[in-house]
Fold each of these.
Amino acid sequence: MLGNLNIRVMLEYLPDIWHGFLATLMLSAAGFAGAIVLGIVACALSIQPLRWLKWPAVAYVDAIRATPLLAQLYFLYFGLPRLGVLVPEMVIGVIALSLNSGAYVAEIIRSGILSIQRGQVEAGMSTGLTYLQRMRLIVLPQALRPTVSPLIGQAIVLVKDSSLLSLISVVELTRAGQMIAIDRFMPIEGLVSTALAYLVLYYLLKLMAGLWVHQNRLPGRA
Amino acid sequence: MFLMQLDRVMGYWPVLLKGIAMTVSLSVLSLLIGVVLGFAFGIIRAGRNRTLARLLGLYVDFFRGTPFLLQVFIVFFILPVTGIELSAFTSGVIAMSNVAACFIGEIVASGIKAVPTGQSEAAAASGMTRAQQMRHVVLPQAVRIVTPSLVGQFVLLIKDSSVVSAIGLLDLTRAGWVMVQSIPNGLLVFGIVGLSYFIICYPLIYISRRMERRDQSTIL
């Protein structure tokens, strides 16, 4: 099946794949940055006590988690122009990626903060630390540490999800691969090049997660 | 204007219903195949034959590391080249079951590893063969550990099924796409599509959360 892969054509289209790769990288980075901001805001709103602020954040997270990204993407793609918002497909794509991943990021950060025991804060108080010192030295280091690996996991999901932007005609890696298929009637060559490029990103992120876990192992914990 | 459009959307209810039926049948069928295959993958991945486990690990990594859309295209475009003719539905089920098996396999493998080794040692001491240990002692406990994640995986599968609309299957997302061509109100049409997904998925998300909470309370 892969024996008669036309390597020459794959090499010939390498610059296109490279451009697609960079576009995917950029779209994912922008989407992830937005997701972190949205996630922090949604998480902050959902753990504070005011009900009328809490409710929208919880509704947002649940609505995103229970619907597919493609439906969310089409919702924005066909819906935004109707609201008079005319922006390029690429921007719609980044907004959809941020909105989607933001909900998962919110859940990840939330579980990090909720994992801290009250006794930790009380111990900080009894040793005379101020609120800011407690936050900086006790709460945040412990709350953020367990979120790093799942956040990298979410970044992996986001990179793969960004392939759906090809369906609203954003030129990224998946689209670049399809162009080889269309130009040369060689779907296999296009798909294989694309898959390999995605795998490079996947293994890089996985390596990062592994290194981070290795370097930040806490004494007494697995 | 809005009511008129809502009325027209309601006129499309057979398409919407067809889409829901397609989404549900794709997901359920793929889940069944995916769970069976996934358990087989998991047992191999956690098994003693390390070469086999690593080879399967490479295969699993390929499907965990590439976008599902690409996998759908691979099944839909590459398999026919090798002489296997597939309908869009079969292609969708193959791609979905395969990706489900890859994710479920890793979950099952970690579940098997989470069962204390003393359990299989005790079973071995009472004269059970490796297969018997797996079947009667390790797997039943592993199943308990992985069930909440499996429910979560089912939700992911339902959401992934939207991607097969790209090869022309009329699922829920495609139904929305069809409707929006004649009713130019994306917010309304995909609002309804989203609501349908929500009604299908939310109970499952709720169940998986409850199960996780219950498990935590039994451990602590």
Amino acid sequence: MSLSNTHRTIDAIWRIESAKLIAGLTRIVQDVGLAEDLAHDALVIALEKWPHAGIPDNPGAWLMTTAKRRAIDLLRRTKIRDQKYVEIAKNTDLYTVEDVDQVLDGEIGDDLLRLIFMTCHPVLSQEARVALTLRLLCGLTAEEISRSFLVAESTIAQRIVRAKRTLNEKNIPFEVPLGEELNDRLSTVLEVIYLMFNEGYSATSGEHWIRPLLCQEALRLGRVLAQIASNEPEVHGLVALMEIQFSRFKTRVNSKGEPVLLMDQNRAQWDQLLIRRGLAALERSRKLGRSLGPYSLQAAISACHTQAPTPEETDWPRIAALYEALSIVMPSPIVELNRAVAISMAFGPDIGIQIVNELNADPSLKKYHLLPSVRGDLLVKLGRYDEARTEFKLAASLTQNEREQTLLLNRAMECGEGTST
Amino acid sequence: MRFMMIVKATTDSEAGVLPSQEQFDAMQKYNEELVKAGVLLAADGLMSSSNGIRISYPKAGGKPKIMDGPFTEAKEMIAGYTLIEVKSREEAIEWALRMPDPHGFGQGEIELRQVFEVEELTNNAELLAKETVLRKQVKEQKQA
Amino acid sequence: MIIKATEYSEAGLADGKDYREAMIPYKKSLAKKGVLLADEELQPSSTGLRITYPKKGGKPQVLAGPFPVNQDLIIEYMVINASAEDEALNLALRMPVPKARGKYEIELRRLKEKLESIQDPGIKAIEASLQDHLNMLKKI
């Protein structure tokens, strides 16, 4: 094997092992920054040794043993007597290959979970959580992260350094939260993963380039989480949502790079494997027997579309019911608007528009451009073109987005034609 | 990128001999590892070719010929496949190397094939150009 | 980089020619490097207003300038993008300083970071669904 081949192999091994390694080391040294450094030291040693000595049979165990040895050296040299490091001093007997195998089976899963809770800790800013999670759990380089978010690499690097420092300074424990706290903290974790996914998924055209890497990393992390936190319905719900959405990834942009809406997508090109996986994940969420949370409900809505052979065969009454359930667990005008559209599709626009009218009465939504925009569409359906035109114009005046403004003004113009014919 | 790890048929798998408990456990453990790493998309084992049907088109534009199994050339047949989603070719190779020997008596063979993805993105010159420009911008920002 | 007001700037005295001439290439060099994100000069505090809330929950009080120079007034600020504190400090130290005008102060502060592209992912996704559903409403 040539040198560069070996290096690429080591890269691949690193990708597979790094998160487990950092998680295990964090448990030992209780400092995520130090753990990452130690893991990196082990990688550097592997890069020196493996090209000549060959790749060991169990590279993960080798890296872990090496990193742990470095940790002990470091502690002896610096004579740290900090209470924090007591645990490492207790375990000075090194892992054997068999030990590490066992750890990989059991505890590493728990360590990974602890690590996710740490990198998604609320003490960090949203951006820091995303950067640190991509770095430590997905093994992405600062360069890859900076490309994905179109932020300077130095900014990402700094953000990661600062995040690690914050975790250390605030003594954030390496643990899975219990009881009440678990739900809140878990929703933060899911939010970080979904944010990663959406950053990759929703950038369709214009100034953004498509970032499937983020989607794939989010999916992978979600799948890992579903394995190690398998009792949490919303984890499966999120995985289901991402699998189903990602099944349409290829069809959501045309050859010119313009976005293609669901209705116009080529359903034959949807990825049936991911759909199947998504539906299975949704089933796992349901089987846990608790009422469905926001991610599971959105996945269920998404599933309705995948199960319709054509857009005309969509099960709208079911979608309307799911939005109603969603509006209870996640009250928001955007959910209501979706419900109004689904009800219009299921039972007619005259019923759907009643929901929109109720929202219209809410003064806090006066500036919300989607409200008149949806109302306009429903009025068109009802043949009330003059009113619709007014709504589209109002919506256009409320949005800052130029593209959207043009679209809305075009809709208003179409209504003009509607009355004259 | 997706890769298919194809486990080739052996005289045992063709004869319908089930794997030993030990082999079975090792495979199970391996699959779990794939799941835990978030890379497993699908894995299936196939029944022996005595259950199979072959449809061939011996003449161009001609009618299909249907043949019932079993078929003879074990080495060219498959006994199962595992589909994984990984970041690089090397990662796929690394996972394939970790798969337990599927036979254990000299006939074990795993073939690794990349799944062809109709990726409009990579074929689209305009988008690629946009991406290049943006990367350049980010790079310049970085150097500044 | 926050440039503090001086008695001269507060008095509305124009900066010396040397200083102005030195400042132009300095800013140009920042811009060329792509690190200069924003740059604003302020008028003297005599044109300013202050809104204070002297009592908790009470009414605001509006005060007209000028305000005392010793109250850390600002005359100009520049937002720069630096990879580390060292670099920012380096850039700040290279900023020209008006001569013979007494005490002069530049303050460096780090901005709170905001990733503009990051919105609430949940809402964004549901908005996308709405577009999909509206499109169906229109066409079916």
